[in-house]
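Batch job 17 of 40 flagged for manual review because the log was empty.
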Amino acid sequence: MSVVDSAVERVADSPVVSKDDLPLLLVLPGLFVFLAFMLFPVLYLVYLSFTNAEPATLFQGKEQWVGLANYVTVLSDGQFWNSMGVTWLFVATSVALKVLVGLGIGLVVTGERVRGKRFMRALIIIPLGLPGIFTITIWRGIFSSAEFGLANQFLQMAGLDSIAWLSERWMAFLAYNVTEAWLAYPFMVIITVSALQDVSEELHEAAMIDGAGFFARFLHVTLPSIKRPVLFASILTAAASFQQFLIPYVFNQGGPSRTNELLIVYGYREAFRFQKYGEGAAIMLVAVAVIGVFMMLNVKKGQLADGVDDA
């Protein structure tokens, strides 16, 4: 008998704790950790969003209650709506790119004629083992506006002029998307490959007998079979894209001139650059509400909470 099992039996046999109370007792440590590191910060953030908190008043109880003033200020700020629009555009474009890349690589590494698939799958997950800040810094160097930047080196090899990647709005936005796709494609490939391996071979054989080519089988057999797993992965990665902070901040802090400032970067800047903790908290809570509604609507519409047999 292990030490843990013997300890559980001693607690269960204790006259103070009954066997009916044992499950609750085992849950309490995890519940305490959740309350300390998750629930309390969220509740404190809610409180700050209704105050005029500043660095001098933080954790001292000197902030003043201002009600919904922070929310009114934020929702009437043009920069907020620019950040909201850019954020959703980033979500749409990055998720589309990640799905295309993940699906394309997944089809390659599950192809019957491809050799070395096990080795390729091992290489694919390497980005998952690298620190995000390290990878993003490398990509920032790749998209350097200087002529020695790797992206500009390729343009020069093709006979094209160099581009100021991070100084032009849409070039910087494109750089965000490429970097985000690189960070997330291993996850998409893992989900896609798992789904592709479950596609019935009998359906493919029946389609081939009926004269269906590769693209016809892909559209009418493969895609319907992997729709739910890919949709599930897309929703998760969309939520991650909505909360993206490191890429725009490390690249050019949401520039040029705050035109590419994603919502989380906007909230961070308001809180720590302009010392408006109350408004920063309001922005973050609006972001939480938006992403929460987005997740619920997509899970409900995609019937992802239903059982597999109910699909």
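Reviewer: the log was empty due to a logging misconfiguration, but the result itself is present. The chain is about 70% helix and 0% strand. Unflagging and moving on to job 18.
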